[in-house]
From TrEMBL:
<dbReference type="Pfam" id="PF00202">
    <property type="entry name" value="Aminotran_3"/>
</dbReference>
<dbReference type="InterPro" id="IPR049704">
    <property type="entry name" value="Aminotrans_3_PPA_site"/>
</dbReference>
<dbReference type="InterPro" id="IPR015422">
    <property type="entry name" value="PyrdxlP-dep_Trfase_small"/>
</dbReference>
<keyword id="KW-0808">Transferase</keyword>
<keyword id="KW-0663">Pyridoxal phosphate</keyword>
<comment type="similarity">
    <text>Belongs to the class-III pyridoxal-phosphate-dependent aminotransferase family.</text>
</comment>
<dbReference type="InterPro" id="IPR005814">
    <property type="entry name" value="Aminotrans_3"/>
</dbReference>
<dbReference type="InterPro" id="IPR015424">
    <property type="entry name" value="PyrdxlP-dep_Trfase"/>
</dbReference>
<dbReference type="InterPro" id="IPR004631">
    <property type="entry name" value="4NH2But_aminotransferase_euk"/>
</dbReference>
<keyword id="KW-0032">Aminotransferase</keyword>
<protein>
    <recommendedName>
        <fullName>4-aminobutyrate aminotransferase, mitochondrial</fullName>
        <ecNumber>2.6.1.19</ecNumber>
        <ecNumber>2.6.1.22</ecNumber>
    </recommendedName>
</protein>
<comment type="function">
    <text>Catalyzes the conversion of gamma-aminobutyrate and L-beta-aminoisobutyrate to succinate semialdehyde and methylmalonate semialdehyde, respectively. Can also convert delta-aminovalerate and beta-alanine.</text>
</comment>
<dbReference type="InterPro" id="IPR015421">
    <property type="entry name" value="PyrdxlP-dep_Trfase_major"/>
</dbReference>
């Protein structure tokens, strides 16, 4: 028995038209020149995507996962645990927004290797650049000790081009966890230097002896304040500030550090300003109380926060909340780390998500990875350590990633992909909100900045079913938190791709409603 779909497509189309007209009218108020230029920029970006995107729609030829994937899972499981494996990928056949799996299924990839591919799969300019950099890739320099002669130029033309305002120091790392782990170390160096002065203790001093036994004063009793729902990595120090899923932390010893509540807001944010402001005020008060409570036992040396809590459920807070949080850090003379591992590199409609906040004083440290290709962190001059070997490991990331990042930044600028992310994001959010009205029993709390977008699956236990059904229709999404789905597409994701996504979401919602 088939469920007859309700007569609502015309309504949805009408609401799309209304939203489009509203956008046009808004642009008109800003001037016809702005309207023309915005339209031209958007058209240019979409044209570039059409040329690159070899596949035009999803194509599913087997169940997902298919027989070849199941065979590979069995082979791999004999070697290591495969509980986290979703798909085996055919990277040679994958193109920009489409991932091809081991069974030949072409999937519209709205997750992009967990938000790690800024330009999608096999962008020709990135492939060409990789081939031209074979020597640096094969040599894999120990960057902390033997960098190549063009290393300063690489840093200048890649990472420093994208540097957040006010931060002109940068160090590379292998991944986001490594970035946060070493950012925490740098924060502690800075805090202790402020306590005792510039110079390190002399050799033979009690601090040198005690640190080798993990005891104060050489190993001081300090802490970093983090937030419920936050995710900052799975290495030992970073894990003590991660609070998204118990499975990450179970059985692992942790530092005794304070955890503050992150605001639990209602969406859309603009419809609940008063009550959300009250919730944010409550959380800010707890932050100040914790700093005071811990000052005599394990002083808070700094705090770490994501502009949007990603793994914890795509949880948002207002720009004002973050401004006030930064002011609390400044007032208490503690460091302020902004974790932009997921939100960095244009996906939110800004180069850095904290650009939205309008800070008077920038973060002290901004960590990055994912779409930035290389891991690492930016920091202010005050946080620069004074002695060698303080933040160091053999590889300190890979210089080939800087070569590729230089090309990525060229393309992002030439094709105005930051602008495209903002505009396509509006299109997707508006479309999902229309579907939320149609299927309130399934979809709720649509939220996003740029293409950093999420929605809640309202009914308990239905999220996994929803995601699996979409996958069978050729659309790959991510999940986060307890009941959220999330989008992390490439910067070449356009309204044309959004239409495919929205159609498949509507189709899936109708099936589940039946």
């Amino acid at each position: 028995m088939h469920c007859k779909p309700p007569e609502i497509s015309a309504v949805l189309l009408f609401e799309y038209a209304i939203n489009y007209v509203k956008t046009i009218l808004t642009e008109i108020t800003l001037g016809w020149s702005s309207l023309y230029n915005s339209g031209l920029r958007f058209q240019q970006a979409q044209t570039a995507t059409k040329v690159l995107d070899e596949y035009k729609k999803p194509e599913v030829i087997t169940e997902v996962p298919g027989p070849e994937t199941k065979k590979l899972l069995k082979e791999t499981d004999a070697i290591q645990n495969t509980g986290a494996v979703s798909l085996f990928c055919d990277f040679e056949k994958s193109k920009i927004n489409y991932l091809v799996d081991a069974d030949g299924n072409k999937l519209l990839d709205c997750f992009q290797q967990i938000s790690s591919l800024p330009l999608g799969y096999n962008h020709p300019a990135i492939l060409e650049q990789s081939l031209q950099s074979a020597a640096i890739m094969a040599s894999r320099p120990a960057l902390a000790y033997f960098p190549s002669k063009d290393f300063p130029r690489l840093i200048k033309n890649s990472l420093l081009r994208a540097a957040p305002s006010g931060l002109d120091q940068v160090v590379t790392m292998a991944c986001g966890s490594c970035a946060n782990e070493n950012a925490y170390k740098s924060l502690f160096f800075w805090y202790m230097r402020n306590q005792r002065g510039e110079e390190l203790p002399v050799m033979g001093d009690e601090a040198f002896i005690s640190c080798m036994k993990n005891q104060p004063p050489g190993s001081p009793k300090l802490s970093i304040l983090s937030f419920d729902g936050g995710f900052h990595g799975r290495t030992l120090g970073a894990l003590s500030t991660t609070h998204s899923k118990p499975i990450h932390k179970l059985d692992v010893p942790a530092f005794d550090w304070p955890t503050a509540p992150f605001p639990k807001l209602k969406y859309p944010l603009e419809d609940h300003e008063k009550e959300n402001a009250q919730e944010e005020a409550r959380c800010l008060a707890v932050v100040e109380d914790l700093i005071e409570q811990w000052k005599d036992t394990r002083p808070v040396a700094g705090m770490v926060i994501e502009p949007i809590q990603a793994e914890g459920g795509d949880n948002h807070a207002s720009d004002d909340f973050f401004r006030k949080l930064r002011n609390i850090a400044t007032k208490n003379k503690i460091g302020f780390i902004c974790d932009e591992v997921q939100t960095g590199m244009a996906i939110t409609g800004r180069m850095w998500a904290h650009d939205y906040w309008g800070l008077e004083t920038p973060p002290d440290i901004v960590t990055f990875a994912k779409k930035m290709l290389s891991g690492g962190f930016y920091y202010s001059d005050d946080f620069r350590w004074k002695h060698g070997y303080r933040v160091v490991n053999t590889w300190m990331g890979e210089p080939i990633k800087l070569v590729l990042l230089e090309k990525v930044l060229d393309i992002v600028k030439e094709q105005d992909l930051v602008f495209q992310a903002e505009n396509t994001g509006h299109y997707v959010v508006n479309g999902l909100r229309q579907l939320e009205k149609m299927f309130p029993e399934l979809l709720s709390a649509i939220r996003g900045r740029g293409m950093f977008i999420a929605a809640d699956i309202t009914e308990a236990g239905k999220r996994e079913t929803f995601v699996k059904k979409l996958l069978q229709k050729g659309v790959l999404l991510g999940v986060c938190g307890d009941h959220s789905i999330r989008l992390r597409p490439s910067l070449f994701f356009t309204p044309a791709h959004a239409d495919i996504l929205l159609d498949k979401v509507e189709e899936t919602a109708r099936e589940m409603k039946c």
